Structures are given as structure tokens and as C-alpha cells.
Amino acid sequence: QSYCHRLQHDMYFLTSTSRLNEQVVDKIVLQLNRVYPQILTNEEAEKFRNPKASLHTRLSDLLKHLQKKGDRHCQEFYRALQINAEQLFNDLPSRKILKTPDPTEIDTDKEQYMLNDRGPVFFLACFSVAAGLALFWYCCNSETQVIGRARRILGFSPIIIGRHVRNICILYLEDISRN
């Protein structure tokens, strides 16, 4: 989409009340007057900065003038708008259309949310179960002699697992060591 078409699409949004204040419009006009190549001549800049005319009229005339001049002029207006009023630039209707995703694309932000919607408690619970199963499998393996070490680890873990569960695990380890 050309910048002239985008500017035509955004014209109502930009000229509506309290979107752009007089200071921002003056900064944009000055920037368009001073940028290389010069977009607005000195006479045109004075015309669009005239405090006797209403802000709405000046802004409407400026946008129509830029559309008549061509795509490069409209592009420089968008650049000036981005520099001087970035929040307004991001809220432009034409920017929202450009940001609309293709329905066939995968939205990675949404996909990340879908994968992580369970939260940290779910992760900790799964990790604890996996660590417990790994420890249990390691301790039950007859080739390893880690019963004493496992007892020490379980003895220091009343914070991680409950006292009753810890006692059951220690009793099980002692029973295995006797066999």
C-alpha cells in the first residue's frame, strides 16, 4: 500500500479532535521544511504554521498538500510523525492493518502462551515427580550401592517432601538394603 493511500486512510484519525496538538503539528511542519530533500518550502511551512487558522484546517490542508505532491512526501510525513508523536504513529489505523497477521501464519506469541498457560506451580510439580522417579529408579537399581548416600539425602529433605513420605522412603531403602 502506498504512503499516499495510507495517508488518505489515516486522514480522519489524524484530524479528529485532540489527536495532534499545535506544538506537534509545528514540529512536523518544521521537520518537513528542514529535511533533505526539502518537502515543504519556506512559504508552505509558514502557511501550515499560521496561528490565525485553526489547527484542524491547517492539518487537513497539510495532508491534502502532501498527497498531491506524491508518495515520497507522504513517507516523510510518516517519518516526522513517528519521530514527534510515536504513540500516535503506532495507533494509526493503517499501522493496525499492517500489523494484522495472515490467518495462515502461526502466531508465535499466542503459541508460547498456549504452551505456558499452566504456570510455575505445574512446572515444579512435574519436575518434582520426575526427580522423585529418577531418584527412586537410581536407588532401586541393584548394581549401585548408594543406599547410605540416599538415606543422607532423604534425611536432609524435610522441606522438599513431607515427614511421612520421607519416613516411608527411608523404610523402603532399609528394607531393600536388608534383602
TrEMBL record:
It holds the Pfam family CARD. Residues 38-96 form the CARD domain. One of its GO terms (cellular component) is mitochondrial membrane. Keywords: Disulfide bond, Endoplasmic reticulum, Membrane, Mitochondrion, Transmembrane, Transmembrane helix. It comes from the Eukaryota. It is a single-pass membrane protein. PROSITE patterns: CARD. Its main location: endoplasmic reticulum. The keyword Disulfide bond applies. InterPro entries: CARD, CARD19, CARD_BinCARD, DEATH-like_dom_sf. The chain crosses the membrane at residues 120-138. One of its GO terms (biological process) is regulation of apoptotic process. It is found in: Endoplasmic reticulum membrane; Mitochondrion membrane. Associates with BCL10 by CARD-CARD interaction. This is Caspase recruitment domain-containing protein 19.
